[in-house]
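pinned: reference chain
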Amino acid sequence: MPYAITVVPVMPLRAEPAHRSEMISQALWGECVTITAHGQDGWVKVKCQYDEYEGWVTVNHLEIIEEELFNAPYTHYTAKWANTVSMNGQPMQVPLGCLVKTTDEAVTVWGKYTVQFEESLLKPFLDEAGLRERAFQFLNTAYLWGGKSVYGVDCSGFTQTVFKTLGISLMRDAYQQAAQGTVVDFLQEVRLGDLAFFDNEAGRITHVGILLNDQEIIHSSGRVRVDPIDNQGIINSETGVRTHNLRIIKRYI
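pinned: its structure tokens
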């Protein structure tokens, strides 16, 4: 199966091989994929290396790479809201949280592309201050179903992207993330960075957010926002209406 790397700032993954099809997720610049099937009109089905999510993408968003690069570790990430890079001498703006495979912060080669980093990259590092800083860089980003970037993000895309800058791998969807980590029994015992999960009337986990403390949560709902939380769930800070019912709290740090 061919290996490839994402060479556009944000690559949509769609449920079916058509631009009008639902966007189910995204791959950010620098993310590697395996091509698992070929469709018509330049569509290919891919499996993302980072979280094993599958979907259809257009092949012109990818560059075929050698297995050696595919198997190399992600070593750095883009740390600003928007970051300037150069692809074969042409500038490009890529978002916060792109994981990069490189042994040299200044330049690397992806297939036929020579990639130059115009700004410093950071190595994923676990610390509470960094977690809060990364989360707040998303503040007021619009909610986007399937989104994983500061240009538009859904609830689990938000948590996944923040956590990967800390070197912590989360799965793609909220219900998958809820199966990871260890349980925190009481809201009063939470620490910064614990994730709170919320369910619908059918009992299915449909939402997730990052707890700042035992009274506040930052999450993507309409936009990335900070709202109060209690033992029952989230209360919209603007309307006073309860919007999400708390199901479980998990710890990953």
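why pinned: The mean pLDDT is 96. Residues 128-137 form the longest helix (10 residues).
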